[in-house]
């Protein structure tokens, strides 16, 4: 049975309902790699820290972006349009690192 992003998020929110906001630290990490036919490889990692929100917010993205709270912006990832969100995400940061090193 497939579980939608909303259901997974709701399970997380339910599990954390008694945890104070300041103790809901979260980290998202991405690893990207490139490989060449001659065997060379290149791998990079990037991460972003934030908190798990108390509720799901946002319409610009789905999944965990709806509960990943960014204190610096006072919003979840899903509340940020793609032009703001993508460069801030762990995936966006890892992609920029990989492109820079290539």
Describe the model.
The chain has one domain (about 5-100): Maf protein (Alpha-Beta Complex), CATH 3.90.950. A four-stranded antiparallel β-sheet has the order 1-2-3-4. With about 100 residues, the chain is an alpha+beta fold. It has three helices and four strands, in the order αββββαα.
What's the total count of β strands?
A: 4
Tell me, rounded to a whole number, the average pLDDT: 92
* Distance N to C terminus: 41 Å
Strand-residue fraction? 25-35%
Helix content: 25-40%
From the 3D structure, determine the CATH topology: Maf protein
Low-confidence stretches: none
Please outline the major beta sheet.
4 strands, antiparallel
Overall body shape: elongated
**How does the helix and strand content classify structurally?**
alpha+beta
* N-to-C series of helices and strands: HEEEEHH
CATH class bucket: Alpha Beta
Under the CATH scheme, the architecture is Alpha-Beta Complex
Q: What Rg, in angstroms, do the CA atoms define?
A: 16 Å
- The structural domain count equals 1
Strand order of the largest sheet: 1-2-3-4
Number of helices: 3
Name a few traits of the molecule:
Maf protein; 4-stranded antiparallel beta sheet; 29% helix; 102 residues; alpha+beta; 3 helices
């Amino acid at each position: 049975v497939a579980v939608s992003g909303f259901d997974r998020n709701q399970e997380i929110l339910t599990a954390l309902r008694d945890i104070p906001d300041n103790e809901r630290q979260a980290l998202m990490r991405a690893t990207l790699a490139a490989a060449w036919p001659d065997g060379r490889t290149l791998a990079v990692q990037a991460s972003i820290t934030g908190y798990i929100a108390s509720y799901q917010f946002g319409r610009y993205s789905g999944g965990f972006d709806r509960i990943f709270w960014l204190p610096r912006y006072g919003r979840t990832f899903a509340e940020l349009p793609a032009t703001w969100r993508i460069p801030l995400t762990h995936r966006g940061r890892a992609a920029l690192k990989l492109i820079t090193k290539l």
